[in-house]
Amino acid sequence: MGNPFATGTELAILGMLRDEPAGMYGLELVRESGGRLARGTVYVLLGRLEEKGYVRSKVQRNAEHPGLPRPRYALTAQGQRVLEAAQLMGLPVARA
Amino acid sequence: MTRDTPGSSSHQPNDAEPGQQIERLLVELRESEKQGWVHFVGRREFVTRIAAFDADKSTRLILDAKSVRFQRVVPHNQRQPKAGARATRIRRPPGTHLARGAAFLLTKEAYRRYVYPVIADLQHEYIEAVVAGEELRARWIAVRGWLQVIPGWLVAFAGGLVGWVVKKMLSS
After folding, report:
1. Are the Cβ atoms of A47 and B126 closer than 8 angstroms?
2. What is the Cα Rg of chain B in Å?
3. Which residue of A38, A42, A74, B115 pairs with A23 in a disulfide if CB–CB is 3.0 to 4.6 A?
4. Tell me: the pLDDT tens digits for B152-166?
């Protein structure tokens, strides 16, 4: 595991995921971020968060839809604790 | 628009003869044509503009174990298709080959985390646009997807090359 701390953008992602217990698609995160996240970087950030264990992804196959099934990202218990810690430290974790 | 896959018909139990399966498939295709012009074949392909089989015999249906394919047959003496005949296309979502190439070149984790989601999003957006009948938007999504992926690959390749050269220089 690399740097265990989460950057401001990563905390913003965690904050958005906290509000969606069912998880979100990458593009939904980009839309919800209001321009803070870009299509080109969202998966790098999500990959990093996944590597740290704060986020987990799940791919659900849809037989009715051709093409590759999209991964859905959800917050892990560890990610939840990181958010709580960030809140205690007074860091901004609200939606971007 | 129906989303029943004609490909699924080809996967039905083998109790029906191949001819019966094809007949059933044609009924489904005609039905879907009435409702829309996009029909899903399988996970990797979908058909647009299903041909009018009765009016124009120039389209041949090929059914194999995995999918349903159409092949346009134009006789030598008839270069141009008949007036009113509609072109049939089996279309793969963009990025299908790119995904295979990336899966081959990259490590499993790098592919799963960084490349796969981008291509999956690209295909999802593209198919949604095609289903909505927004052909131009679909094309733009495909182009944008390539523009999104290729510069990153070029930068990664250039970075790798520079790293390799520096390593060689330091070791010599």
Report:
1. no
2. 21
3. A74
4. 677 777 777 888 888
Taking the Cβ of residue B114 and every Cβ of chain A, the question of whether any pair is shorter than 8 Å is answered with yes
Burial of B93 (0-12, 13-18, 19+ CB in 10 A): buried
Which backbone phi and psi does B3 adopt, to 5 degrees? -115, 15
Check residue A55 and give its pLDDT.
92
Among A12, A8, A6, residue whose Cα is nearest residue A24? A12
Q: Which residues of A touch B107 (CB under 8 A)?
A: none
Question: Averaged over B100-115, what is the pLDDT?
Answer: 84
Do B5 and A50 make contact, defined as CB atoms within 8 angstroms?
no
* CB spacing of A67 vs B43 below 8 angstroms: yes
Rounded distance between C-alpha atoms, residue B57 and residue A68, angstroms: 34
Spell out the domain ranges in chain A: 8-88
Average pLDDT, chain B: 67
- Supply the CATH classification number for the domain A8-88: 1.10.10.10
Q: Is the pTM of this model over 0.80?
A: no
Strand B38-40: give its sheet, edge to edge: B38-40, B46-48, B89-91
- The distance of B81 to chain A (nearest Cα, Å) reads 29
